[in-house]
Amino acid sequence: MTADPVRDVVIVGGGTAGWMAASALIKALGNKITVTLIESDEIGTVGVGEATIPPIMFFNKLLGLDENEFVRETNATFKLGIDFVDWRRLGHRYFHNFGLLGAEIRNGTGFIQYWLRSIAGNASADPSTFSAETLAAAQGLFGRAGRDNSGLPNINYAFHFDASTYAAFLRRYSERRGVVRREGKVVGVEQDGESGNITFVTMADGRRIKGDLFFDCSGFRGLLIGETLGSDYESWNHWLLNDRAIAVPCERTEQTTPYTRVTARKAGWQWRIPLQHRIGNGHVFADSFIKEDEARDILLANVDGKPLADPRTLRFTPGRRRRCWVKNCIAMGLSSGFLEPLESTSIHLIQVAVMKLIAFFPDRRFDPIVVDRYNDEMNLLLEAIRDFLIAHYHVTERDDSDYWNYLRTMEIPTSLADKLELFRTRGETLPGPNELFSEISWFAILWGQGIRPTGYHPVADAMPQDDLNLTLDRIRAAIQQRVAGLPMHDDYIRQNCASA
Ligand code: FAD
């Protein structure tokens, strides 16, 4: 039992970040703390953010959510990975699959290394027959589990969902468990003269809300973390050129695909995210390389359903808050930084931030060792995601615009240069413990973008050739069997997630 416990938590902001933080805190610490969330209907939320990655399942499990209910309430579809179109060169595509590639081979190195040995330098070899998620996605199939007893893990998946209904869903969850919502605008912040800690936020109607610990979930503005506490924003715009997005929801047209599609354009890329009731589309682009009107025209010329609303432009600076936790305030969501949604990492970063905060939950002394450790870990995580994103642009053969020529030839962070060098020579990237993307994800991107390793791990040579052939044949057959017989994605949703 700590001597000086945090009792009152105040969350400023009710977008995805605010309600994710509120729901997780009330679930984990509800009998120890009060949670008040302030949001302004007038300001509203950013209202995009529709694709996720598999670890969101852990968040849903923490909350104890029924997944079918969650899919139903948020108009969600299932996501098996991302279809990358025109990234390596025009006319080329590859798939970044969730889940494993192949299967675990208990001989000291990973499946990829055995596969690299097996293809004997064949540059056009295709690893996709070893990914159940890729095979299922290509046929529009989905099921949570396989139907065989091969020992392979279950199909790995995430969701596409409607961000505003997700926030509403979490709001209902949180309020039922005691989170108090205050509607209105925060116009002032009071700080303790000695420590500098935030003590109250003041609302436009004069209400003062007291807290021991504050969460800044106020969106791009960073009301507390930036404007009050002065944590600098570090721009990564010289590596990640995109700083605008135009989003437009469209009518649903056909069977929903169980994957996100991202298509590279001359100065950016376009997303296509299928939900049950509509398709989310957007064009993320670099303002210094293309005019907004042209970016909008490209978007509207490449959507496959009728637009349901006027296109909306969002501006952002790619980068991060140097310190997300300052004194008694922690920034989560857009107030803590933003990396473009190419690999759907923002909602995941909110999840990590809130889970880590629960793990590091402070008392009112706000021990600098705890605060520094939190900031260091979040920074490492973000830098590794930044490198992963940069790799998508830098490793390309595209030379059809100034944008691609800049990205292909620019100087990259040393941390990424080292990874690319390792991959070129050994076919591995050795992600560290604080990294989100695994060896399999790095392989999907770097192989997909065209790098062909010249070597592989020496342990892969230890297996006799016949054993290797048999092992790979067995794994390939088990994966094919796993996918055969899966239902169509829409049928699966209808049968499992529809209202009772
Ligand atoms: P917001 O949604 O902006 O919420 C801010 C909240 O603060 C609002 O409730 C607002 O009312 C409140 N507020 C602000 N100022 C005040 C004040 N003075 N007083 C009271 N309340 C205040 N993420 C993904 O994971 N996957 C994706 O596919 C994805 N796509 C994206 C596409 C684009 C173009 C953009 C810009 C982002 C995308 N994201 C994606 C990111 C995702 O949308 C955000 O991370 C997520 O919505 C969290 O936003 P937020 O809650 O931090 O901010």
UniProtKB/TrEMBL annotation:
Record GO terms (molecular function): monooxygenase activity; nucleotide binding
Transmembrane intervals: none
InterPro entries: FAD/NAD-bd_sf, Flavin-dep_Halogenase_NPB, Flavin_halogenase, Trp_halogen
Keyword annotations of the record: FAD, Flavoprotein, Nucleotide-binding
Domain of life of the native organism: Bacteria
Sequence positions that bind 7-chloro-L-tryptophan: K79
The UniProt record lists the keyword tRNA-binding: no
Residues where L-tryptophan binds: E343
Origin species: Sphingomonas rhizophila
Name of the protein in question: Tryptophan 7-halogenase
Amino acids binding FAD: G14, G15, T16, A17, V186, L334, I347
